[in-house]
Amino acid sequence: MNKIIKIMRKRILISFLSLGLAFQTYAQTVNTGADIDVSKEESTASISTVNSEDIMKSSALNLQNALIGKGLGLTSMEGTGNIWDNNASFSIRGLQSLSGSGILILVDGIQRPINDLSTEEVESVSILKDAAAVALYGYRGRNGVLSVKTKRGEYNKMDIKFSYDHAFTSAIRLPEFVDATTYANAINEAYANDGKSPRYNDFELNAFKNQNLPYMYPDVDWVDATIGDPGYSNNYNLSFRGGGTKMRYYTLLNLVGNSGFMKNTETNEGYSNQAKYSKANIRTNLDIDLTNTTKFAVNIFGVIAEYNHSSPWTVMKNCYYVPSAAYPIKAENGMWGGDGTWTTMNPVAVSQATGYSRSHTRTLMADAKLTQKLDFFLEGLSASLRIAFDSHSTFWEGHNKKYMYASDRYSFNNGEPDEVIHTEGGEDQELSFSKNMNGPMYYNFNTIGSINYNKNFGKNSLFTTLRWDFTNYVQKDRNNTINEQNFTSYTNYGYNNKYFADLALVYSGSNRLPDGDKFTFSPTVSAAWIVSRENFLKNSNWLNFLKVRASAGILHSDYMPAWDITTQMFNGNNQTYWFTDNYTQYWGVIENRLATENVKKERAIKYNFGIEMKALDCLSLTTEAYYQKRDNIMIGSSGDVSSVLGATPSYKPEGRVDSKGIEIGLDFNKTINDITVTLGGNFTYTRNKIKKMNEAPVAYPWLSRTGQAYGKPFGLKAIGLFSSDEEIANSPKQLFSDVQAGDIKYKDQNNDGFIDKNDMVSLGYNTAVPEIYYTFNLGFEYKGIGIDALFQGVGHYNKWLNTAATYRPLANNANISTDYYENRWTPTKKDAKYPRLSSESVANNTQNSSLWLANASFLKLRQCEVYYKIPKKLLKKISFKQAKVYVRGMNLFSIDHIHISDPESLGTSYPEARSINLGISASF
Fold first, then answer.
1. Which one of 306, 314, 540, 901 is least enclosed by Cβ atoms within 10 Å?
2. Are residues 96 and 225 in the same domain?
3. Domain that holds residue 353
4. Last residue of a domain, one of 124, 150, 176
5. Residue 499: strand, helix, or coil
6. How, if at all, do strands 602-615 and 744-746 pair?
């Protein structure tokens, strides 16, 4: 019997050695998110980590926004939207593929959203970047991984911690719009430019100016009337952390309340129109030692939230669009202001008199893991099984109403006021109620099993694991179920604690792929050399650590541009046909798209080289250089299939994008007596190029997207504004519309005497992810009193200026911004920034062009904190372990080229917020 066991042990060991991927387990680790902890010093992969202390320096109400400006290689930008979903956007190493560059986000190794996580419950966040770091995740990890590790209990201790953060918030960088008199003069100027009679006569202009008839000729600052009340937020945390000899626990209760900036939203009895939300989180992480060789872990996370919506996106749009001269907030008869032109767009009425919507979300995330040592069979052998289930649902309730509106204006006879024209419309309606379950809904089921072997043989160390994981993700509606699984072998070999080599072999499958081709094999190899452990550097007085590492790997994607890519889909609702002598219309059946026969999986070939160094006990440096080739991207074949076929073309695996970049991180941390100084910075530069995209033939080389950076904007090259009819006559004819003095003049790229789509060229940099992303932080502490600041900036970044009223004024009865009015073209200001005024949409002036492409680079002070750590001598008297009070500012200022709006929130989205936070945290 013993002989049989020895033979089985030998065969199992050989199996592990032959199938493996590498990693190491040491005391100081970084989180890879897959139940695998890798030594930061001895890791062969490109992983940067943000620890809990850095995360807690932010007063963001969730982890997603707290990560802005943190982590080498992570590009995190302020989100736009509403008060409840204004979450940061993430990318790792820029735009990587024509199929998208979304990253995988994990919480304790399971794919989960992080927008509901509080900063208090997080132990660390790791950014996994190269092939060696993400190989384990198969198809999902191709664009990089953001891995969150939550806090766990500790043996034989107990710690109770309480924290409270109160924020005073205000809207920042709202554009200004002209007053009523200026608007009236502007629209008259526009009418004159359009060859029309003035819209407002002298009597009306004086009435706007003197405000002696405010109900008939008002002057309303709609932005000020609707936005501007101070907002606030409250963030409470209570946690229990500790354990005994056999069990560890971590429990957190987090309560958040956040209220927006809308004015006078408490005027209705029984409800508020304010944009706000309240949310409660509870987390419990348990670790139980069932025996000396058997461990059991359970994680439970629940969220209950309620969101008051009240249409802030509509309010913001109307604030920008409706002119100050349109109508008063309320007419003289007490009805809400409104007329036949701007009807029910009164921003104040929309925010106060149209009811409200409320949504309720429920989220439960739970997982359990059983780990068993198998030393009785083979020393160093262990196995684990993990099961996770997540569920999320949203319930909506609508409380809607309508309002009546009115306005008064004079009619005129020979320029003199004649009679008052009274206009009424709309209807009064009490609150109606509706409900539905149409919000986001999903459930996610995960199973992970692994067998691990860890053994040291003299100077040799070996770790290997065989792992299987399965994910079942189901969203509402059809064709939204995703099944993925990976069969993984991980092996690591280390020699003499200086040389390390990793091998990853992953066999991945997905139901998104066509039958017969659902699985793919992906290999990755990496190595590291800790140079500072060599004899010639071991006794260096200044060099503490030096490591060189490299990795290469082939990853694949299960991206498919459509769920029915391999079928010929028929649809009866997309086409009409005409039959019979009466030429009657009938619905018909059409072939929607040709079947794709040559389906391939998108492939990413990744290379990475890194150097890590620490010197003088206080200075750390990390440098990375990478290159990636992304090919076999499934793209539409419209470039070589004629539309004469009458069907949408199929897809072809002919897209290719190459990308490369560098990352540099530098940190300085030094304590001398009672003084601690911290300095640091991260710099990321990434660049991509489209090598192939099956582009349709173009008339001129400058029209081609191939060879350009992915996401790079195209448009006409503006070379000024026409100053006279003579200049127009002597210039190439612009075919988009008739032009006159004050319209945009474009460069004739092909010298054919005409300006049309053939004269478009690549302009600037992409508008989605900046190529340059950098941060630097400054910190100083003396005897518990300290200051800490984080600056974050971007470069090589553009945004289109196309917001109605702000940059597209007056047309379709839109408002006009002060910036546009003061910088418009006039016969006396021919070197103006913007074209002439017009009450019509001038197609020539609204083309994408260099005039409307703004430099969106910026430098922001993201956070600045002044704090005081209460001395431990005082705390001991009241049985406290630590206590800290602070004043913290968030988004305090921005240096940029777009002065009237924030470069991260152009448009009519909910405004960005600046906050001053007062907080306290204590543990006992």
1. 540
2. no
3. 219-436
4. 150
5. strand
6. unpaired
CA distance 873 to 893: 38
Q: Exposed (0-12), middle (13-18) or buried (19+): which is 892, by Cβ within 10 Å?
A: middle
Give strand pairing partners of 255: 236, 280
Identify the pLDDT of residue 22: 34
Q: How far apart are CA 255 and CA 257, in angstroms?
A: 7
Per-residue model confidence (pLDDT) at position 309: 75
Q: Who's near 701: CB < 8 A, 6+ residues apart?
A: none
Residue ranges in the chain modelled with pLDDT below 70: 1-39, 81, 84, 310-312, 437-438, 568-583, 586-592, 641-647
> Residues with Cβ < 8 Å from 515, sequence gap 6 or more?
none
Q: How many domains does the chain have?
A: 2
pLDDT reported for residue 577: 64
pTM (predicted TM-score): 0.91
* Residues 139 and 241 placed together within one structural domain of the fold: no
381 and 264, same structural domain?
yes
Judge whether 66 lies within some domain.
Answer: yes
3-class SS shares of the chain: helix, strand, coil, % to 5: 15, 50, 40
Phi/psi region, residue 603 (left: phi>0; alpha: psi -120 to 50; beta: rest), is: beta
Alpha carbon separation from 492 to 135, 464, 501, 546 (Å, rounded): 14, 6, 6, 20
In a domain, 161, yes or no: no
pLDDT of the residue at 580? 66
Contact 347, 327 (CB under 8 A): no
Q: What is the pLDDT of residues 863-913, one digit of tens each?
A: 999 999 999 888 888 888 899 999 999 999 999 999 898 999 888 778 888
Whether the Cβ atoms of residue 544 and residue 615 lie closer than 8 Å to each other:
yes
Numbers of helices and strands, H then E, in the chain: 13, 47
Please report how the helices 202-210 and 180-193 are oriented relative to each other, as an axis angle in degrees rounded to 10. Answer: 150
Output the pLDDT for position 438. Answer: 67
Q: Are residues 246 and 325 in the same domain?
A: yes
Largest CA distance in the chain: 117
pLDDT, residue 312, reads 66
Cβ–Cβ < 8 Å for 191, 280: no
SS3 state at 406: strand
Is the Cβ–Cβ distance between 547 and 530 less than 8 Å? yes
Claim to verify: residue 278 and residue 412 sit in the same structural domain: yes
CB 234 within 8 A of CB 165: yes
910's tokens: 């909910």
pLDDT of 25: 32
Instruction: Tell me the DSSP string of 215-282.
Output: TTS----HHHHHB-S-EEEEEEEEEEEEE-SSEEEEEEEEEEEEE--BSSTT-STT-----EEEEEEE
Contact 31, 25 (CB under 8 A): no
* pLDDT, position 843: 96
Q: pLDDT digit string (tens) for 36-49?
A: 555 677 889 999 99
Q: What tens digit of pLDDT does each residue of 186-212 get?
A: 999 999 999 999 999 999 999 999 999
**What is the rounded distance in angstroms from the CA atom of residue 228 to the CA atom of residue 233?**
16
